[in-house]
Amino acid sequence: MKGPLFYSKILLFGEYGIIKDSKGLSIPYNFYKGALKKEETLSLSQQASNKNLRRFAGYLAEMQEGNNLVRFDLDKFEQDLEEGMYFDSSIPQGYGVGSSGALVAAIYDQYALNKITVLENLNREKLQSLKAIFSQMESFFHGKSSGLDPLNSYLSLPILINSQDHVEAAGIPSQSTNGKGAVFLLDSGIVGETAPMVHIFMENMKQEGFRKMLKEKFVKHTDACVDDFLKGDVKSLFKNVKQLSHVVLDNFKPMIPKQFHELWKKGIDTGNYYLKLCGSGGGGYILGFTEDFEKAQKELKDYKLEVVYNF
């Protein structure tokens, strides 16, 4: 057995904001991928994956008791686990590129009964159903999930989030092959944990000042970035990304690893690059935007950078 491949994703805009109805834009990132596989003898890491899948199977059994959103062929799932199934993935965990999302997509694809397939006409209703199913499934890993990562991985299409109950597949401007500008990933070298970061955010949301900042600054600039990116208005995009980077540095400090605070500020001050959170933060990848990648590379020469999109 070798299941189909599911890719990692990058949430370009919308981290945290989408919990509070900002727009968001998520794109597949084919550099990392995962698939369900079976082996007769499992290595230690494959055994760990098999064990994790067993716990997930138990969670899905409870989940389908409590709702009629989706049913799974759990007998088949259990049988495959007995036969040495595991999730073979190159997607780094705790890096904000959707490792659990790809796993959820693979399990749904393999075991959901009456599943919504990628080949159907994916109207708004079907996308919402998928997002709701994936949100419940992925909550096993994070405590609270929007369902977007698995949706992106399952469809392998850019996803535009207009609001929590309005999601659509999006066309994004094609990349410029000889452009100087780029969106890139910077490897922080630290593994991030999603649940504690979301907890800090939820605690902050209890303060009126934080809620006001989120609505008037964070969501405003996030929405503008999404609109600019989809329109291909690079000039306006960088103006808004700079503002967004500033708001994050001022208000989301716990989500930025301490040793990157100076680097973050330097980007804003020089204008050579702007950094933002990739996923929930706390480590993993940091997302960067630059109008001149060579210049950014020189400034960030001590770090490993990966280009994900060229302007």
TrEMBL record:
Keyword ATP-binding assigned: yes
Keywords tagged on the record: ATP-binding, Kinase, Nucleotide-binding, Transferase
Any one Gene Ontology molecular-function term assigned to this protein's record: kinase activity
Ranges of residues in domain GHMP kinase N-terminal: 85-149
Domain of life: Bacteria
Protein name: Mevalonate kinase
